[in-house]
Each structure stands twice: as structure tokens, then as C-alpha cells.
Amino acid sequence: MQCALLHLNCKEISNININYQLYKVRWSGKTDGTPFMQKALISIFRYVDVRVGYAFMAVVILFYMFFRHSAFMAQYNYFRKCYGNNPLKACFNVYLNHFQFGQVILDRFATYAGKQYRFEFDGKEVFDEWCGQQDGFIIAFSHTGNYEISGYNLKPGNKHLSVLAYSGETQTVMQNRQKMFERNNITIIPMGEDIGYVFLLKEALEKGDIVSMPADRGLDNSRHITCRFFGREADIPMGPFYIAVTMEKKMLAVFVMKKKWDTYRVIMCPVYGNDKLSKNGNIRYMAQAYADMLERIVRQYPTQWYHYVNFWKG
Questions:
Q1: Closest CA to 63 of 20, 19, 98, 110
Q2: 92-141: pLDDT as tens digits
Q3: Which of 25, 76, 213, 279 is most exposed by smallest CB count within 10 Å?
Q4: How far apart are CA 85 and CA 80, in angstroms?
Q5: Which residues are CB-contacts of 93 (< 8 A; sequence separation ≥ 6)?
Q6: How far apart are the C-alpha atoms of 91 and 250, rounded to whole Å?
Q7: Per-residue model confidence as pLDDT tens digits over 278-309
Q8: Residues 55/60/66/67 CA torsion (nearest 10 deg)
Q9: Quick one: DSSP state of residue 73?
Q10: In the chain, where are the structural domains located?
């Protein structure tokens, strides 16, 4: 899933002079494999334990790392500079990172095949309280853990949840996502070249529903906010925070981290603004608050941040 600069109406969009031809993602987020391979994987997991897939992935991931040099170096630098790993330990952690990401992908396909995972919730009372209110709110997620799998088990009560998702995914993945989401009153809003999704998000919030969008990765040439992250400057996409402040909507950060092979921990934390600040100041305040939350989670689960591009400035 990818995020873009999201604005609220045509006038505001034109005022900031955004060129939508620049909406080219640095990483497509498309799941690897042909449709036949993906459908075969779902069929296999109906009869085979997903841990068998983990064992196979432990070997295959070595070749994957070798042919994805830029992704390898992005994670290698992350472990070297943020945690002070020596070169050998950094390489080992890059392997663990790729291996755990492979497990996340396999868990998704196992879920399509009917596998049930356990979820432990921290802060769900906030989610339940907000779902019981009339006003809509925003869920900000990141490329950590396995956010998508929580949507297969997260029930937003009487509210409808709209999830912003990259439209270039494979047909097999998109169809199975939609089938799983429909059970819990969740709809996917595809994000592509057409900017119509911007107005769908706005409409959903105005109706009092929930909108979910990524908040740790932007697009090339999209608007961003510079925040402190691991003691260095990094770019956080402006879109989710702009919407929250402009539409006066609450924001809930959700992190879904793999705890054991069959268990995920779902962490929910409100992202508060500061009404005493100006509009731009409040947007920056919320973005930094989210960056601080993301850093705390990533420090707890250092190998579960799947951000395979250069993140920091310089």
C-alpha cells in the first residue's frame, strides 16, 4: 500500500499546484509471483501448515536479497546507523528482516486459505469508543508488521472502514483482500493515476466513517514534513496529517506486529494535535508525534520495519 498527498477539494488541490503526473511510487508494493503461483499457494495452505512455507522461505530469501541490492542496502544502512550494528550483525538483521517480511506475505495467503491467527490488543478500548461516536476518524498505519491481516479480524462496529490501497496489486491479491474485508464492513479504495480516491476519502469522513491510510511512506515529489526520527531528519508524508487538521478529525495510529508464528500484537495509540498552534504548526506537531510513536514501535521490533527505500535525508 502506498500513500499520496491527499487534499480536500479541487480548489485546495489547485492552490498548492500539485502535478499529478508526478505520482510515481518509488516502490510499487506489488506482491511478487504470477497469478497462477499465488492461487497455487492459497490451495497449498488449505492442507499444509504455513510453517512449512516459512522453512522454504528461509532459503529462498537469500536469493531475493541478492537480486534486490537497493532494498538490501536501505535496510543495511538502517541497522548500521540507527542501532550501531557492526557489518556482520547488520547483514544478519537484514536477513531476519527479509525473512520476517516473507512470513508476513505467507501469513496473508494462509489467511486467504482459511488459516486463523490470534490477536492481542493494546489500546482497543480507544478504537471501540471512537467507533461508537458519530464523528469519523483516521487510522494511520505504517509498513511495520502486518497491518493488512488485522483488517480481516478488526470489526469497526456500525461504522464503515475505507482502506486506501495501491491499485497496481495483482488481481489474485486484490480479490482475496476484498473478500476478506467485506466480512467486516471494510472497503478498499484503490489509489492510482485517477485522483477520484481523494474525494471518496473526504466523503467517507464526512459521513462519520473511518479512513485508513499509510503515514510513513510518501511518493516521489509529493508534499512531506521533515521530522526527527532516530535522531536524524526524515520525510513524513503530509497527507494524513493535513486531512486530520483541516477536517478536524481524530487520528489513531495502529501497528500490527508479529509476536509468534500464529499470534499478532495490535497496538492502538491516539495521535493528538495541538489546537494552540497555527494550522501548519499543528500539522507538523501531529506528524512529529506520529514519527515518535513509529520510532518507539520500531525500536521494540527492529526487524519488522519493511521500508525498503532510503528514508533519511542525506
A1: 98
A2: 999 999 999 999 999 988 988 888 999 999 999 999 999 999 999 999 99
A3: 279
A4: 5
A5: 75, 79, 83, 85, 302, 303
A6: 40
A7: 999 999 999 999 999 999 999 999 999 998 88
A8: -140
A9: H
A10: 10-304
